[in-house]
UniProtKB/TrEMBL annotation:
This protein's name: EvbL
Taxonomic lineage of the native organism: Bacteria, Bacillati, Actinomycetota, Actinomycetes, Mycobacteriales
Pfam name, any one: HTH_67
Organism for this UniProt entry: [Mycobacterium] nativiensis
Source organism superkingdom: Bacteria
Stored InterPro entries: HTH_67
Length: 250
């Protein structure tokens, strides 16, 4: 089990960083502005949350979980006003594919990343995982680089949803989680105003959230992949991240 946990952790880290590179890159923001989103963060919120349909901002904020709700609601309302929820999601999906084609094409094993990742996606029950369920239903691109990054995107949403579920029943607040994870700059990026509760007395609880998340992800991987496949996905995902970082301009 320890080897599987290691593989799941490495895969999750690589995919989180690869997809975050796409989400936070100036080119992605520029494409969103060109598509009519004056505030590119509104394009991000509407794009990522668009698979939830024409929901209220409060509903979307509850699913995003770790964003300051009032700011998230405002960005959702601004974003869906541009081209609706479904239109925003489709644009974001196309942007994901385009980023993969441009910056991931030089990586090895992209077909295997997609194939192994799709096995996990198909085998995972979607109950309690709304963003994962929504993105799983989106059609994948046919070409390897675009498809691989889209599969990474869906798996990132899976791990995020599992993590949010663990967080929400833990007693650790979102702002405490941010402070225990990456600190005040990260908290500010998610819209939270100062002063920040540092959560120092909840370090053990936060560590347990990570353990619960990793154990559940290991269960999901074990239901779809054998140990060799899980190790392969970890290795290829880690290498793909390095290839992406080398290709993407700073």
């Amino acid at each position: 089990m320890s080897e599987l946990l290691d593989a799941v952790g490495a895969t999750g880290t690589a995919m989180e960083q690869a997809v975050a590179t796409f989400m936070l890159h100036p080119e992605t923001f520029g494409e969103s502005i060109a598509a009519g989103y004056v505030n590119p963060l509104a394009g991000y919120v509407a794009g990522r949350g668009g698979v939830l349909g024409e929901a209220s901002g409060g509903t979307v904020a509850s699913v995003f979980a770790v964003f300051e709700p009032t700011a998230l609601c405002a960005m959702w309302d601004e974003g869906v006003a541009v081209r609706g929820a479904a239109g925003a999601a489709q644009l974001y999906w196309d942007q994901t594919a385009g980023f993969g084609r441009k910056y991931l094409a030089g990586a090895d094993g992209l077909d295997r990343i997609a194939a192994l990742g799709e096995k996990v996606i198909a085998a995972t029950p979607s109950a309690g995982l709304p963003l994962f369920a929504g993105w799983r239903a989106m059609p994948l691109a046919d070409d390897a680089a675009a498809r691989a990054l889209q599969v990474m995107f869906v798996l990132r949403e899976l791990r995020a949803a599992v993590h949010f579920n663990a967080l929400c029943i833990s007693g650790v607040t979102p702002i405490e989680a941010h402070m225990l994870n990456k600190g005040p700059q990260y908290a500010a990026m998610f819209g939270w105003p100062e002063p920040y509760a540092d959560g120092a007395d909840k370090r053990d609880e936060y560590a347990q959230i990570e353990q619960v998340t990793n154990r559940r992800m290991a269960d999901l991987f074990a239901a779809a992949l054998d140990p060799a496949e899980a190790a392969e996905l970890a290795r290829l995902s880690t290498a793909a991240l390095e290839s992406l970082k080398a290709a993407v301009p700073g």
